Amino acid sequence: xxxxxxxxxxxxxxxxxxxxxxxxxxxxxxxxxxxxxxxxxxxxxxxxxxxxxxxxxxxxxxxxxxxxxxxxxxxxxxxxxxxxxxxxxxxxxxxxxxxxxxxxxxxxxxxxxxxxxxxxxxxxxxxxxxxxxxxxxxxxxxxxxxxxxxxxxxxxxxxxxxxxxxxxxxxxxxxxxxxxxxxxxxxxxxxxxxxxxxxxxxxxxxxxxxxxxxxxxxxxxxxxxxxxxxxxxxxxxxxxxxxxxxxxxxxxxxxxxxxxxxxxxxxxxxxxxxxxxxxxxxxxxxxxxxxxxxxxxxxxxxxxxxxxxxxxxxxxxxxxxxxxxxxxxxxxxxxxxxxxxxxxxxxxxxxxxxxxxxxxxxxxxxxxxxxxxxxxxxxxxxxxxxxxxx
Length: 390
What we know:
The chain is an all-alpha fold.
């Protein structure tokens, strides 16, 4: 988030954080509401994100029903893209953190981020071979503990000794704003895990509503991200990196501990994030592969998927630019486009052309295409400028 603020400035960044949070919350709200309506219509206890989208088209307007399976494939692809794109960001994040640590510990052997990405390939392949979620739970617990400690250390450095005057700008050139939008969406969007959470709640009716679990959580997230974004940008100015932990001092033990812990935490989170896309892809491939080759096929699939994320990380070894690109393409599609389309199709027969719902969803679609096109353009432009000059 500090890097996001660097691309827009303090004033529009503060407003933009609220706007992105409101849009993200609203899109989650309409997805969950639609899922509940569909569950009642089909007398189904609960539906996943993908099942909701497919079922809406199955029972929707007659002309759209033949496309229900295609919608499922599209949503699965978007879900896999979010996870694979996100894990590519994780690879760069871990590599950047390790580079910072070892550049200080072994200054006579300075390696590039790309080399650290290659070093990570084998450990990531090994840990991604874990196929059952129950075996990943200990890693998740350990990751969360590491992140809590790192967060405390990062806050200490971020809120301590803020320079006066700061390099931070109140408003940045508007050509940089798209990268703020795609980065903020990447940071705040978590719609792919919403349906499992809502479906597993003892009292799912408390998920929506006022205050409700969703609203309370998103207010907390928006405030937390806004505060960290503002103060991180005030502290480090134009030198702020894709993750503020990378800005922590290289020559202080406490800061090195934070960098090491966050690298470990993200390393274990990598295999958790890979679980969903591997499950989606394997479900599609399994019927076409003989039972005797299932184990070998799973190993190959997981290995190739890890190689893909590492290759993408090596191709774009800039954390901030890759976050912007992945956020603009995948996170905006899963978080804005699909919920809006699904709600519109679900309500189509009950809605007039001049209704509030169509106008509102039309505006959300315009926002989606602005984020997609401008975010991709800005990220690709900066990638070409940065790496064409090398």
